[in-house]
What we know:
Blueprint: H1 2-8, E1 13-21, E2 28-38, E3 44-47, E4 51-54, H2 63-69, H3 73-79, H4 83-94, E5 101-105, H5 109-120, H6 126-134, E6 136-138, H7 139-146, H8 157-163, H9 177-193, H10 195-207, H11 214-224, H12 231-243
Parallel strand pairs: 1-5, 5-6
Antiparallel strand pairs: 1-2, 2-3, 2-4
Amino acid sequence: MKKLRNLLKSHKAICFFDLEGSQYSHECIAIGAVLATFNKAGELTKIRPSFKVYVKPKNKIGKYVEQLTGITEDLLEEKGVSFAEAIEKLFAYLGKYEKNTLFISYGNHDMTILGQTIAYNLDAPLAKCTIIQKNYLDFQAIFNEYVKDDNNNVLSLVHACEMFEINIEEGIVPHDPASDSLLLSRLYQAFLTRKDIVFDRYVKVLSSLNNLPAPIENVVKDLSEGNEVSQEKYYSYIEETIKNI
Length: 245
């Protein structure tokens, strides 16, 4: 897809990442990532094993988030590190690509979590955090231009993967940041290669668009239902609309 290729021009790698956040303060409690290189078409070539680190927040996790993610206060006490150390570990994982990586998440809530966590941590490594913020792409925003569910609603990452027939094998755990990062890398690849699925979903998205002029809406509806639309029929839709002014 040309839009994605243009975004990748100044980068040499992609870091698919996911941040889990606390319930009320929206501080980062875990970071997951998958680093991948890509070819000229934007398709992934080499995918590095996933990365995960737990992060100690300044405030409580919250019961709902504990139940959703399985991340508890005890777990963070045992395995968590400071936010500053977590970011250093992430950039160590990126290695030589740390300055020319595009950071991709599914939904921009990850940027909210990053911003909130910086605010709560005076020792946050601002230079590295700024690299993430300035080289960031919300893949969900592009994906949902073309692919939605049958009711024209935004798809969750798991449901999007199911739609693209991506295998979610044993060991992949929803709301685990490493698992979600891996699934996102697979969804990205499928979005570029499964043109048949993108085509079918985009037809449905176009037929469900709101606020189109009535003649265009009628034409799109006819075409989506497999009906031919001649110039004469198109003009009849325009005449019908004008009559109702």
